[in-house]
Amino acid sequence: MKQTPIDKQIVDGLIEKLGITDFAKATIREVKQVAAKAEQETGVEFIKMEMGIPGLPAAKAGVKAQIKALEDGIAHSYPDIQGYPELKKEASRFVKAFIGVDIAPEGCVPVSGSMQGTFASFLTCSQADPQKDTVLFIDPGFPVQKMQLQVMGVKYETFDVYDYRGDKLKGKLESYLKKGNICAIVYSNPNNPAWICLREEELKVIGELATKYDVIVMEDLAYFAMDFRKNLSTPFEPPYQVTVARYTDNYILLISGSKAFSYAGERIGVTCISDKLFHRHFPALANRYEGLPFGLVLSTRMLYALSSGTSHSAQYAMAAMLKAATDGEYDFRKEISVYGERAHKLKEIFCRHQFYIVYDKDLDEPIADGFYFTIGYPGMTSGELAHELMYYGVSAICLITTGSHQEGLRVCTSFINDNQYDLLEERMAIFEENNPVE
Fold first, then answer.
1. Tens digits of per-residue pLDDT, 96-109?
2. pLDDT tens-digit readout, 350-360
3. Sequence-ordered list of residues with C-beta below 8 angstroms from that of 1, at least 6 positions apart, any chain
4. DSSP 349-408
5. Contact assessment for residue 187 and residue 222, using Cβ atoms and an 8 Å cutoff
6. Contact between 279 and 273 (Cβ < 8 Å)
7. Residue 178 — φ and ψ, nearest 5°?
């Protein structure tokens, strides 16, 4: 056995000190803490792949507009609960330019990041019909969304889409919907953590079943247009970001400023509600909220109660970024394509040393290179692999924490530095030697 870059006793001691009994279930924050403390104690650089935080500078158009808004005195004014009119207009244009669907400005509601958008959407969907009290996740997915439901006391069900791509999706999805208790379906596209992208035919199935069973689809577009296999960067020209919105009127699109524009720190996003759903009256909501339709319940009741609106100056930033992209003055895809380049290099290194990509295909096509990807190692469970990699100064989270039933880890490319590719190559060579595949 070759000496590992990090002393095993130090890693094990830190894990024990933090009270982590099963490393497969360690949270992102716990993995980050072990890595940071081990790096501090040993002085050995860690290759940190656990946190999904943007690693690029914020979009200049947003920064410039936000500073101007602050200098002009906007901080003294409460924002309109419906949102800054210019942002609503630009969000509507952006959706038309890059998704190719029409949503009126009134249905584009600013939120304090997509996290608040999902929270308000969950609240509204779960109260719309007393018979439908459960949310369905097409997993793997973002663990915090389930925590939001836990906080609300709302039930949820989940299935791992790994074995249900393509033709198999309809039967699996319908097996849940026909029970009559599902109020909303949630998924991310591209997917966190697997980076799979649901295909047009799969979204058609989801949309048609949502209409059949009167269920609302919450499409999380946190990684908007980041399927780098396609040129999605030309406004008002196909190909567009794929979406369920082409196949049902029962949808909410969650568009975040965090990843596409690297504007995570200002907590800004837009929740875009279909025109039909925005104006739809649900008897349960109307009785509870003075006769208001779905969209106004979400904005003037849920969001108002949560935060009284969204940072005023950040709305100016988001409006400027969306406008610059829609006008063709700012190619946000070009800025963030570095994530795909990093993923390509990292995958090559891991696969050269006996690792494999867990979620490896979108039907017949290899998955895109992007913000995340998933790795496994023959003969190792998720927990064993994540724990073992800590000895080599590599930190990542286990797929089990994302609702996946597969053994493996999620790797994030956002904090990878150019000097770390050679470092990873060296360390994975030792890893392979110390963990021979039979």
1. 999 999 999 999 99
2. 999 999 999 99
3. 434
4. HHHHTT-EESS-EETTEEPPPSSEEEEE-TT--HHHHHHHHHTTTEE-EEGGGGT--SS-
5. no
6. no
7. -70, -10
**Closest-CA residue to 251 (of 225, 287, 214):** 214
For residues 139 and 404, is the Cβ–Cβ distance under 8 A? yes
Work out the burial of residue 163: count CB atoms within 10 Å of its CB; fewer than 13 is exposed, 13-18 middle, 19 or more buried: exposed
CA 283 to chain centre: 32
Decide: 414 and 52 in contact? Cβ < 8 Å: yes
Encoded amino acid at 232, one letter: L
pLDDT at 232 over 90: yes
| Residues linked to residue 411 through DSSP beta bridges, in sequence order | 373
The CA distance from 206 to 399, in Å, is 24
User: How big is the chain by its Cα radius of gyration, in Å?
Assistant: 22
* Among candidate residues 265, 222, 267, the one with its CA nearest the CA of residue 241: 222
Per DSSP bridges, beta strands 108-111 and 409-412 are unpaired
Tell me 103's DSSP state: -
* Angstrom distance (rounded) from CA 315 to CA 155: 33
Q: How many CB atoms lie within 10 A of CB 58?
A: 19
How far is residue 208's CA from residue 252's CA, in Å, rounded to a whole number?
A: 15
CA distances from 263 to 54, 232, 289, 396 (A): 8, 20, 34, 23
On whether the CB atoms of residues 398 and 25 are closer than 8 A, the answer is yes
Region at 58 (left for phi over 0; alpha for psi -120 to 50; beta for the rest): beta
- Confidence (pLDDT) at 25: 87
The mean pLDDT of 30-37, rounded to a whole number, is 92
Residues 6+ apart with CB under 8 A from 134: 154, 155, 156, 157, 181, 182, 183
Q: What region, left, alpha or beta, does residue 406 occupy, with left being phi > 0 and alpha being psi -120 to 50 degrees?
A: beta
Distance CA 221, CA 53 (A): 16
And the tokens for 434? 């110390």
